[in-house]
Amino acid sequence: MTNDTSVDPGVDAPLAPATAGPAPASAPQKTGGSWTSKLQVNRFSGIYLWAALILLFSLWIPNLFLTNATLQGIIADQSVTIILAMGVMVALAAGQYDLSAAQVLGFAAVSTAWLISVAKVNPVLAVLITVVGCAIIGLINGLLVAVVGINSFIATLGTSSIVLALTSLLSGDRLVGPVTDSFKQIALAKFFGVPVLVAYIIVASVLVWYVLEHTPVGRRLSATGANIETARLVGVRVKKYIVVSMVISAAMASLAGVLLVARVGTVSSTIGPSYLLPAFAGVFLGTTQLKPGRFNVWGTLLALFLLATGVKGFQLAIGANWITYVFNGLALIVAVGLAVVFERRRTTKVKDTPKVKDISN
Amino acid sequence: MSDTINTATEPIPAIAIKSLTKSFAGVQALKSAELEVRRGEVHALLGVNGSGKSTLIKVLAGFHRPDPGAEIMLGGEPHEAGSASAAHAAGLRFIHQDLGLIDTLTVEENFSLGTKSGRGWLSDRREQKRVQAILDRYEVDIDAKSLALELSPTHRSILAILRAVEDQMGSDGIVVLDEPTAALPRDEVHQLFRIIKRLKATGVTIVYVSHRMPEILEIADRVTVLRDGRTVATAEAADLTLDSLVKLVLGFDLKALSRTAADAELGDVQLSVTGLTGDVVEDFDLEARAGEVIGVTGLLGSGYEDVLGLVFGAAKPYSGSIRLGGLDVTGEDQAHRIANGLAYAPADRKHLGSMPEWSVRENLTLPDPPSHRFMGWMTKRREVAETLEWIEKMDVVPVETEKVFATLSGGNQQKVVMGRWLRMQAKAIMLDEPTNGVDASAKRAIHLALREAAANGAAVIVSSSDIEELVQVCDRVLVMGDGRIRAQLVKGELTDDALNTAVMTATAAA
Fold this sequence. Notes:
The complex is a heterodimer of chains A (361) and B (510).
Chain A: H1 17-20, H2 26-33, H3 35-41, H4 45-60, H5 62-65, H6 68-93, H7 101-117, H8 123-148, H9 152-171, H10 181-188, E1 190-191, E2 194-195, H11 196-214, H12 216-226, H13 228-233, H14 238-264, H15 276-286, H16 297-318, H17 322-347
Antiparallel strand pairs in A: 1-2
Helix pairs in contact in A: 4-16, 6-11, 6-14, 6-15, 6-16, 7-8, 7-9, 7-14, 8-9, 8-14, 10-14, 11-12, 15-16, 15-17, 16-17
Chain B: E1 15-24, E2 27-37, E3 42-46, H1 53-61, E4 71-74, E5 77-78, H2 84-89, E6 92-95, H3 107-114, H4 124-137, H5 153-165, E7 174-178, H6 189-201, E8 205-209, H7 213-219, E9 222-227, E10 230-236, H8 242-250, E11 269-278, E12 281-289, E13 293-298, H9 304-312, E14 319-324, E15 327-328, H10 334-339, E16 342-345, H11 349-353, H12 360-364, H13 380-393, H14 410-423, E17 428-432, H15 440-455, E18 459-463, H16 467-473, E19 476-481, E20 484-490, H17 496-509
Helix pairs in contact in B: 3-4, 3-5, 5-6, 14-15
């Protein structure tokens, strides 16, 4: 610890010279004026990055990358993640981490497969039972958080393990499936050469975008996540919104699970968790795009396609699996890091210090 | 306060600043400002927001580099402004409004964050003893082992000051206090003053920045007033009265602007509270009619600071009933109360009153975002238009709907919060410390807005520790002591002296 800090560096101390340490006062302002501010202004940086990645792989591995199969592969892979991410984002907007979402996805996949292939239930009924069951898991999550008062991180970590147990019990730790070919059409159908998955992506995104970003309900939900005390004092029924957000998260996860099983036919009990990181990485990276500082649908969508393109490209070019994990992990850290830096820059521009380079001398 | 310090020979001033100019993007925040602080005095620095007061402090602290040509001498030595470490080495210590204490650490640990006794191995016991010895030396009743969050606001301030002073400062040091009493209850301010006087007695120089004029006359030896980036005056505090000081700071006479809103006829009962009991409050009754502004005050701990939260339901009362315009809302939640015309603006704007990172627009429309009847669709254009209307009405500066709320000054934040509830056409508007941390001219604007809200048919209830504010703005004031209403002063008898006396005696009786 330096001995020149008479005042402890509070994050938003209005004038914090002590935190600047021995550096000349103008130095932090100068760096603040250049690259970070450009990045901040540039809330479209993700689009450029995406274009750059596409260009890179087009030049590097044109024969492998610039194919219809690659495009279809990215859409197929991402459709499940996107629907999961949309639900997770709703919970995050309400200030809650739903770590159980990916396991719920896995449970929904196994449950649908089991109901169809083992219990021989009508597929429509199978999906209905699964979604309702998962919504109940979401309700339990919501009640644990809003009524009992457990931190969502802890509560969903706990339920996630219990859902894994249910999944394992149901599957007997064996592969479950296959589902019927007609059921598979849910994911494999094409209209005029366009996969039906595209429609799911659009419907899920537009729906969440509409509710979250263009209705009072969404505003109140976001208010709950932004500052729960203020939200309560302006009349938002915060507990209700927390419970609802957790139910939506679980329900969306279950739909993603249904889609997954329709796509692959046969699933194991451990299929869920691998979707957790990409979904969270996409949502957090999304907060740095288009509407900085907010959980937003189009930013998330952009982020998820950006990540998928990178992962797919490197997989094709290098042919190794580890690249996927590195890419998603790095993306999550970079995304949250950028979000934190942006938020600090955005909210601490005090009136006395306009963002101008110190041009004295 | 006697003038015993070297008046015989011309002493070297602790701080001497001449022709200090500082511009930002061509706009001059300071225009050849001057400041001379004598060694060992308490020197108050005054000015409304935007007067350049905080820029001057930031130059001293090394946060801004002044424009060329400035002359800054500290203790007779030229000082190169623009470096935090040089300021520290020259014995300057700054106590900001954000005290920089970590709530979850003990007093001793907080102390050691700034001042570490530099032997490698940190022993808790030894540190505790050292810190306790310092606290005892200043006769402060703080236990070095207690957590920072357990301390009263006053003790927290004192802790921050002592920590800074004890950090290798020496007796020729200079302590700059930025609004040290803004968050303190009035009756505890004297504790802080005792520490300041004590530091002064040991030869420490103190620069004191504050909006609260009466206390400046009490504590300061001399006063420097900044207005519009220039030094308007430096005067002996003894030669000033409250009126002349206010006139110096504002540049005009506040009295000339006194209450303009017509005294509206009192209307229907908008809010009635009977037998409210909770926290320290006992058996609180209130009947607020359309058109009146009611004050609630008392000493800290008397319950005046808890009443509004209880009425609103932010804290759960044990018993009592609450009616809004004839409708019983006793068992209902806040959402229901708001829907029926109750509004509450807490004192803590940052944590309870706003979404600091959100825009002015979103903060203003928060209780009821404007939406289309068809499927609740919200259009930004309509929301912007509605927000513009309100921030113009409330005179929020700048007139920008997308500005991040946290970047507004305290006065403008409060105006947005008031606009929020006026837009909701609340029948009863309750505000806790509405002008806390707000400069003199914004304060005036807020007072006018309160009167106007009442004139337009709302009942306004203000809980405040600011006696002058209550006298200026209220039709009647309830004085609480020990949880109960002890006195009520109505318009004719409502003067600073009468109200001060009522507050003091309300406690004595209890």
